Amino acid sequence: MTNKELIQAFYKEFFNDHVVESADKYVAENYKQHNPGVGQGREALKSAFADKFVTDPTFKLDIQILIAEEDMVAVYLKNVDPEGNTRCRVVDIYRIENGKLAEHWDVLQPAETRV
After folding, report:
1. In the chain, what's the furthest Cα-to-Cα distance?
2. 47 and 39 in contact (C-beta within 8 Å)?
């Protein structure tokens, strides 16, 4: 599986299908998180999004651009509501190690208008 395929599969299963346990396949146990709103490690990621999916069962991320170079992948995506309106724009950056997501950075931009 290429790094791009890894990211695509992870986003589909984890973020869009809300299969929190899928992180076990795609995320390293000692996952390093640079978003202060989510704790360190795979279990903290799973816990944070298990809660998110309960409070927002329509949560979805649509990949717009995916760029991979060596062990780094950058993803530009939109968080969209069920009608397809943009709630937030996101850039996620990952470092891949041994076929798993090892480190994560992000930038979020809430949508002022839902287009």
Report:
1. 40
2. yes
Averaged pLDDT, 87-115: 89
Q: Which two tokens stand for residue 115?
A: 């287009």
Record the pTM.
Answer: 0.90
The pair of three-digit structure tokens given for residue 97, joined into one six-digit string = 């190690």
Question: Using CA atoms, how far apart are residues 4 and 68, in angstroms rounded to an integer?
Answer: 6
β strands within the chain, DSSP E: 27-33, 61-69, 72-80, 86-97, 100-110
- Residue in 84, 71, 72, 93 with CA at minimum distance from that of residue 114: 84
Length of the chain: 115
Q: Taken in order 64, 69, 70, 76, is the CA torsion positive or negative?
A: negative
| Residue 40 in tokens | 């360190």
